[in-house]
């Protein structure tokens, strides 16, 4: 069975753009790509220093087969599960020339090991095609072209208290120098994260366009692989298409910047590359599910029984629909709870907007009343002045009438 390990940077979520307000500095192409050039140079050095990048493998005899029948085992040399006490591997398919052959399922049992996989062996010491792998202890399932790292991974957490599901799909690292391009999503979250992960750094793009409570539409981040911190030029795009960009130094804000179009185009290409990898994985999953159904048609018959493990456990794959129905019920319950929380938040926002509208209306009415009061006061002053002027005119006329007439006589 093939076990893949990938960089922890793959499980990082998108970071929200933050930083202090201040002046914006225009940067050129050379400066904008400086972090990327540095990380890519480090990556090339990692590749050149990595002599053997292939996963170590073993061919181990199937425990339940009397005739020679070896199975492919990929393992971690630092934690070889095949060397632990009680390790066994079973194969329910055919054997040919000493090796597993055709379509079948592998079962690995041992200390902290409970794995199964649907595989197609072509005969001889040649790596098989893996379509389905399941870790029953971790509740992790992989479906797709697992051999080449293109698959959909489903992670379920259900401990009786907490329930959650994550989906990761795309291309996953097959070795220490491979580059992963995959998508993280969660049915209970409105955010989707697109990741292109190198051994030493990662592009992390958060899509929040479906999150009605977020002011952002996209967050682009560059993450250092060792420190798991933002490092480089990052930016966010708001719902009203305003772009905010900054320079980050291992998680510390440095300055606001205006990045060139060439940098935006580069990030757009990375975004599309990850989306394409996700689609390749989904297409591979469709094929894997068809192979799985073909396998189930063979073993899900009453006449088929095994003696190397509990038959009910062996045939649990035949009753998956019941488990899927139970899973859907739990998902619907949690989604209903989330919708209630969203509705409460919407109501809170509506009430806040109503309060703000009322305050704005009251302020407008106060301004209008103040303006009217000022107008009335000014009019009163004007009327008072006019009255004073009229009274003064009347007084002048009255005084003029009361004064004696004076006639000047001219003698010629």
Number of helices: 5
Rg calculated over all Cα atoms: 38 Å
Main beta-sheet strand count, sense and barrel state? 18 strands, mixed
Q: What structural class is derived from the secondary structure elements?
A: alpha+beta
Runs in which pLDDT lies below 50 for 5 or more consecutive residues are 4-19, 405-412
Strand content: 25-35%
Mean pLDDT: 88
Kindly state the percentage of residues in helix. Answer: 25-40%
Q: Based on DSSP secondary structure assignment, what is the total number of beta strands? A: 18
End-to-end separation in angstroms reads 147 Å
From the spread of the alpha carbons, the general shape counts as elongated
From N to C, what is the helix and strand string?
Answer: EHHEEEEEEEEEEEEEEEEEHHH
Which labels suit this protein?
412 residues; alpha+beta; 2 domains; 5 helices; disordered C terminus
Structure description:
- It contains five helices and 18 strands.
- The chain has 412 residues and is an alpha+beta fold.
- It has two domains: 8-309, no CATH class; 324-388.
- The chain has an 18-stranded mixed β-sheet that branches.
- A hairpin with a 7-residue loop joins strand 15 (216-224) and strand 16 (232-238).
- The longest helix has 83 residues, at 320-402.
């Amino acid at each position: 069975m093939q076990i893949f390990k990938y960089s922890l940077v793959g499980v990082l979520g998108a970071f929200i753009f933050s930083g202090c307000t201040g002046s914006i500095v225009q940067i050129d192409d050379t400066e904008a790509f400086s972090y990327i050039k540095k990380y890519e140079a480090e990556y090339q050095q990692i590749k050149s220093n990595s002599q053997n990048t292939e996963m170590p493998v073993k061919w181990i005899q199937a425990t339940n087969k009397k005739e020679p029948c070896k199975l492919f085992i990929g393992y971690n040399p630092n934690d070889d599960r095949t060397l632990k006490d009680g390790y066994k591997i079973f194969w329910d398919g055919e054997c040919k020339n000493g090796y597993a052959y055709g379509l079948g399922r592998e079962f690995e049992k041992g200390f902290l090991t409970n794995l199964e996989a649907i595989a197609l062996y072509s005969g001889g010491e040649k790596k098989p095609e893996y379509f389905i792998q399941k870790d029953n202890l971790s509740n992790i399932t992989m479906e797709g072209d697992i051999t080449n790292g293109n698959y959909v991974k489903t992670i379920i957490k259900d401990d009786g208290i907490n329930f959650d599901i994550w989906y990761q799909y795309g291309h996953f690292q097959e070795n220490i120098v491979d580059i992963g391009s995959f998508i993280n999503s969660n049915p209970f979250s409105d955010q989707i994260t697109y990741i292109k992960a190198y051994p030493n750094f990662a592009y992390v793009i958060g899509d929040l366009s479906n999150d009605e409570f977020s002011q952002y539409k996209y967050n682009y981040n560059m993450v250092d692989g060792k420190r798991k911190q933002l490092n480089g030029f990052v930016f966010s795009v708001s719902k009203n298409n305003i772009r905010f960009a900054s320079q980050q130094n291992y998680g510390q804000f440095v300055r606001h910047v205006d990045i060139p179009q060439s940098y935006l185009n580069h990030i757009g290409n990375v975004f599309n590359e990850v989306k394409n990898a996700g689609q390749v994985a989904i297409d591979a999953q469709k094929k894997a599910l068809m192979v799985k159904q073909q396998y189930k048609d063979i073993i899900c018959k009453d006449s088929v029984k095994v003696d190397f493990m509990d038959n009910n456990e062996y045939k649990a794959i035949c009753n998956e629909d019941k488990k899927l129905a139970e899973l859907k019920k739990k998902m619907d319950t949690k989604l209903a709870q989330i919708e209630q929380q969203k509705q409460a938040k919407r109501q809170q926002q509506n009430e806040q907007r109503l309060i703000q509208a009322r305050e704005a209306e009251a302020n407008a009415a106060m301004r209008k009343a103040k303006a009217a009061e000022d107008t009335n006061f000014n009019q009163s002053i004007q009327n008072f002045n006019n009255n004073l002027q009229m009274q003064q005119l009347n007084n002048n006329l009255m005084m003029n009438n009361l004064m004696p007439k004076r006639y000047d006589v001219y003698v010629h």
